[in-house]
């Protein structure tokens, strides 16, 4: 879930002393202690031994991992006042990365730094916050969960608003000293109502885990087995467990409405941390324990081995840019490709462009006849699976589209999508038939021909060699389907060596607004000029305001490449820190992260792919940042609301801000909202990387080929496809191990 930076809380006040009682006088009234005041913030009988015992038993018996659900936690009158203060006095900032989209306040612990007059704006919110971290409630949480000591000084909570399109993808919350996660729901149904409807989305989803082998790390299943819809005053909590506490938040699919509060999944969420130094229950070995928990979570992100590539059956050909394709290669490729991409002059222009940018974005890549059949076939497949426009923006079942050649892929803390299963025969009907485009082939068959016949072929290998001036050595090709409301990939990277990525995106487009046509939203690719073959920072087709949700990235599904980040503790933030801004609507920049040409790829025939996964922080970095949990960059309520800081708190407040700024710099400036405001103030002459670290973004298109030379450690992802999308994001993606050309002595490397 979205994370925040904790700041120190106000010191606890000692209980007021009782008056001495006289035998002849009635008992004198006493001021309530802080603990007594805290208990009155909750519903009656919450701390009764029978209530605690029943909750503890339910917690012990819960599946898929231990968790508790309280139907009512807080005094209802108090919670209503808390809601009013959050809506009326706090400011929400929209935040979006590869893993989430949410509207979030700053860390509520920072309210301590306001002046007394400003703190007076939040009497109910402060009372609730202090009650949650009070000794009685922390003891209650320990009694139910059986966990170790919980800190009262390290407070970590924020208010979150999930509005239409907001979501949080699969993660386990493991970071630093976090011990228990919690969510207190305040959903709003519009016009002051609190009756949230299940079909509006926003449910908390819990995932079971399993091990592929006895020695492998546990991984979450692709489909959740527990779904908890939000309800007013509902409280959900669970102990943070490395490799077990995987959860996500379903996308909210209902609009805000026109009233002041709107329909939004409002919540207060956060973590209880382990006892800190100086607190009762603190143990010195907790530092070691925190490090182990952190490394365990980072291991989950780097556990996947690099893709297993298939070598070509023949030795590498000597690809020379001036050597034309053979007649046999041209005949085969002309069945699939737009003729413009087979002309010798076009190939020279593409090779020159790739040498400059290490990336190409080609429009109308397939020939017109094949593109027409794919467009119709894929639309029909979505309609048959209940994933087309008639779904009206609702979230489909997790099983939607599975079967008939499509298999569900996970684990969801790294990716979730459908992939085309292995071909039952060595060649598809499209390649073997006398008529290369038979009428009876559906969208799946046509897609399989591209993944099984075209991209792995020797002819396409030769074409890649001419365009990139590289020698393709081995490959992996996969047909993929990203279903609306369900599928995505999260930002990961591989070490070891550069790879050539090729993605043929085949996502049918909606009809441009106000125009007649068949709803394809694309041009036919017939007779396109060579200058349109490469997109290098140019706007797509113009008239962007008339294009539907894929081109504007409103439906997600955009592909992003970004620079790696070092030193980030939180795996969720580490994966997504550079994805803060939406895609810029076109492929741009030098995708290999260096701004140099093809000569920067140092790839050899032997010794490929021996270093798996995503690289996390070095161990030294983990120890250095132990006491500074990098839990997201949040807008501070004091700054956002223009509130004045009390003079006596100024030094502590500025110190906290300095720590936050240092953390932001270490993370490469992940908060896109703040950095966009600074855009244009300084120009160092480099256009290769924006302030968020994004190197290249490409919206989901139809019949577009994206080719990227990906350096080691470069991160990439496909953004979650919103339930608002009118269909699936379809593509055929390939990955190639490549070698450099060396023509001086007439030998290949």
Automatic annotation (TrEMBL):
Residue spans of biased composition, Basic and acidic residues class: 515-526, 597-607
GO terms under biological process: positive regulation of catabolic process; positive regulation of macromolecule metabolic process; regulation of translational termination
Regions of compositional bias (Low complexity) in chain numbering: 418-438, 584-593
A Pfam family it matches: 2OG-FeII_Oxy_4
UniProt xrefs under PROSITE patterns: FE2OG_OXY
Source domain of life: Eukaryota
Any one GO CC term of the record: nucleus
Transmembrane segments: none
Nucleus found in the keyword field: yes
Cofactor: L-ascorbate
Localization in the cell: Nucleus
Family as reported in the entry's similarity comment: Belongs to the TPA1 family.
Protein name: uS12 prolyl 3,4-dihydroxylase
Organism: Calocera cornea HHB12733
